[in-house]
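Review form for a predicted model. The reviewer records the input and the model, then writes brief findings.
Reviewer: anonymous (R2)
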Amino acid sequence: MTEPRPAPPPLLPNQKLRRQILRSVAMGTAVVGASLLGFFPVLRKWIPRLRPPGALAEHEFLAACIKCGQCVQVCPVKAIHLGDIDEGYGLGVPHIVARNQACDFSCDVVQCVLACPTGALSHTLNRKEDVHMGLARLARPEACLARQGVGFKGQARGPAYKGIHRYVEVDRWKPIRVADHPYDLPLCDLCVRECPIKDAIALAPLSADPADKRRTPVVTSACVGCGMCEMICPAEPAAIVVDIRRQRGNAS
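Model under review:
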């Protein structure tokens, strides 16, 4: 019979620390490598993103975008950000998080499209109404204040919210903080009131009763998916959201 091997001597504290560091470094290298190669978002379809106005179809956009950041620099409301390291092929690629800061078209000429040097943001667009980033949808009808028939008073997203917006009645060319523009509305219509696209969204009666104050947001084919309605909605989470890349008559 072979004699049992003696138990290894216990690790010293500095040896344990060294092993932990080596393990962390190895794990970090593997995660970063997988992210850079795109395995995470490609295989598991992580992080779908709302792209800036005029973006080509996703695979074409990723191929054409050189991650130069020109669109980020010219955006007047700082709505565009570059993808973080966990986004694989999306690393450094511009996107918009509408709930944090929507594209409100305060540049009026879609400056990000004009600034793009490769055509990843289509240079064939002539008007902001030609842009299709997505399509707004009433995701939480029970949270919608208009459907409850109630008004809204105060700051749309609270005093701490840092998002900005171009208010035509204040200064057409200078966006200000949403928190600096309080409301006093007998019936909440913020998604309609602050939409930058004409006739993209409207409020429709919920019943035929003239005394019924309840209204529901109705999104039309004019919607470009800029995300302004999602950003300005006072419900938390937002009652209305943008479905990325979706257009009227296209559920994909």
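Findings: Residues 206 and 215 are 5 Å apart (CA to CA).
Further findings: The chain is about 25% helix and 15% strand.
Recommendation: see findings above.
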